[in-house]
Amino acid sequence: MRRLFLVLAAALLPIAALPFTAGAAPDDYTQVERGRYLAIGGDCVACHTIPGGTQWAGGRGIQTPFGDIVTPNLTPDEETGIGHWSADDFYRAMHTGVMPSGAHLYPAFPYTYYTKVTRADSDAIYAFLRTLPAVHNAVDRDTLPFPFKVRALMLGWNEMFFRAGTFEADPQRSAEYNRGAYLVEGLGHCGACHTPMNWAGANDAARYLQGNVLQAWTDPNITDEQRIGLGSWSVDDIVEYLKTGRNARAQASGPMAEVVVYSTSGMSDADLHAIATYLKQRGAAGPAAPSPRPADDAQMQSGAVVYTDNCSACHKRDGTGVEAMFPPLRGDQVVQQTDPTTVLRIVLQGAQGAATDAAPTAPAMPAFSWRLSDQQVADVVTYIRNSWGNTAQAVPASDAARLRKRVADTAE
Amino acid sequence: MTISTRRQLLASAAIIVFSRAAFGHTILGKLPWRPNEVYPPEPLGSPGWHFFTPGEAATVDAMVDRFIPADELGPGGKQAGCTVFIDRQLSGPYGTYEWLYMKGPFPADPLPSQGLQSPLTPRQQYRLGLAALNAYCRGKYDNRAFAQLDADAQDKLLDGMEKGEVQLPEFSARMLFGTVLANTMEGFFADPIYGGNRDMAGWKLIGFPGTRYDYRDVMQNPNKPYSLPPVGLKGRVSADRSPT
Description:
Radius of gyration of chain A: 23 Å
Strand content of chain B: under 5%
Order of helices and strands of chain A: HHHEEHHHHHHEEHHHHHHHEEHH
Number of strands of chain A: 6
Helix content of chain A: 40-55%
Low-confidence stretches of chain B: 238-244
Largest interface: A-B, 31 and 19 residues
Helix content of chain B: 40-55%
Order of helices and strands of chain B: HHHHHHHH
Number of helices of chain A: 18
Strand content of chain A: under 5%
Oligomer: heterodimer
Number of helices of chain B: 8
Number of domains of chain A: 3
Structural class of chain A: mainly alpha
């Protein structure tokens, strides 16, 4: 009887706690844990930590076309962290991109997306951040060159490109779709990377989720487009990819491997399913396929030789790869993106897949920069982009040369 | 634990010793990997001979071309870069037998199964042996060096060296013959990155596919000829051209 009472009490506890979450004290376990989960969903730690450094203490340089922006310390340290911020301050930063001092944040902090996060969710994340051990870590927050270092510029930028707002559910759609929309358009800020940017670094709303190039990585189209988007992926394919870092089609590498490791692999199956449902049902958009390169094209012929000698051992001559180990190139989306940066980069410097609890192997590909010339790299990438039914623009050797210089010293 | 017996003391000591060894290296999380991490083969270095004198190189050129003469099947030892291969090997750790125990005693009449029984490093074998060979030739063939003999005379001389019938002044003819023959074969069939096997001539001769990694695609086609050309560690073409 006593045991039954305890079980009942435990079952009722979270329900009983719910109505009091808003504005609750930091020691409110339920709110803190909800905040911890939401912070995972927002992938906050990936940017607010130097790789290998103290988590949440900031200091990581985020490359933007305007210069590097160093992320702030999110621990509750009074002097160098956000110890003196209130829950209202935190929501204001999330919702409008303005710090307690009144100074503007740059949209490298994706407040343009976080503006849709509800007050309750913002408060939960705040409550969670209050529980972190305070770390004294002063971060130089003014690394941008003039004129971009003038934060007041963001007033004009916000005027042109930003509207603070809350998430509006679409009553025509399912609750699951709307949950996915809330996560993707808000906390998950997927569009921050996966949407093309305009001249001012603002995401181009008209081409939402149609792919982008950032930090010398191609962020692929994640609309339902058939050739270069998620059109040929099922909802379950997407869920498996986000949960484990790989599926039968693809393997997360580069910045997306980080997203999987720090964020999506820690999200609930229900939320991942909602994200996948939203992405699949939102619709397809993207450029029309170019005509494939003819097989007798000089680049295609040279590329076939390079492919046979260097790539086919793992990816197979028919481009089908080895399931769960070497991703297939046939029908792959990243390979066929209009911008070839990621494929070129992986050929030049290699890549390692994400290591998650569900898929801990993290297979890696070695760098080929030492044995392939710029022309050979361009040829083999052109070949991969136009074989086995793939179609994409040819890649000139100058692209490979430029990227070789760009990534020669990158350690991440 | 208080140690009260000799056995306990020994057991504790063993645990300390073995546990230190067991925790020597631990990999946590995912396998280590860095972008741009490459281990390219060492290049052949500057042109010209690194160990041989021009005269020695000419002698070795002549020898490797008798061991593997150019014919309708392909290039000979010299054209395939065997001399370059041997020169670069001698200038590296092989030249001094860096990893071998090189002290005596050396039996006067060792069995072949006893391997090397001499204090002479490969560098010394070539330097002394080639000098002895040319001294022998100059004495016997009208002051001509080995490289200046015609092919028949060279073959006859090498044949005599192999059988132990030719006595070179102050050097074992058999040792010189055996060393150069072994190194010639190594140079003819080693990966082209080491200077020999130029254009993969050796591999093409015997149909060796080279450093391809995976043959499952081929094995699924039984009784069909294998048509791919050989590939070396640096790709399908020889990396470095002749340095001489």
